[in-house]
Amino acid sequence: PEAQVSVADGTAIQVTCEPGPTGGWQWVLSRLNEEIEQPQRRLYPSVLTMLRALREELAPEHRAYGLVITSKASGL
Fold first, then answer.
1. In whole angstroms, what is the distance from residue 29 CA to residue 41 CA?
2. CA distance 49 to 62
3. Rounded distance, CA 31 to CA 38, Å?
4. Which of 64, 75, 74, 55 shows the shortest CA–CA distance to 15?
5. How far is CA 4 from CA 21, 24, 28, in A?
6. How many Cβ atoms from other residues are within 10 Å of residue 55's Cβ?
7. Per-residue pLDDT for 53 more than 70?
8. Which residues pair with 64 in a beta bridge?
9. Which element (helix H / strand E) includes 4?
10. What's the rounded Cα separation, in Å, for the pair 1 and 17?
């Protein structure tokens, strides 16, 4: 499964879930680093840890804000 999270300033972060090294699943946040034009990938062991990192990535100056996740695609 994968999703792209975008915010009003154009920031886009790809969220994927892939098999982990110990047989479980891990969550991956990927973002293009414009300075070096290479994707940055960070791995997280749980969805909660990944969501906290995603919130920090998108709104570091507003730590009290939560995330509201909606889908534009019908049926999701």
1. 6
2. 17
3. 8
4. 55
5. 24, 22, 12
6. 15
7. yes
8. none
9. strand 2-6
10. 6
Burial category of 27 from C-beta neighbours within 10 Å (exposed 0-12, middle 13-18, buried 19 and up): buried
Run of H or E residues at 51: helix 47-58
Q: How far apart are CA 33 and CA 29, in angstroms?
A: 12
**How confident is residue 57, by pLDDT bands cut at 50, 70 and 90?**
confident
Do residues 7 and 19 make contact, with C-beta atoms less than 8 angstroms apart?
A: no
Question: pLDDT tens, 24-48?
Answer: 889 999 886 666 677 788 999 988 8
Contact 29, 41 (CB under 8 A): yes
Task: Give the residue from 14, 1, 19, 9 showing the smallest Cα distance to 59.
Answer: 9
Residue 12 tokens, joined = 């886009």
pTM of the model as a whole: 0.66
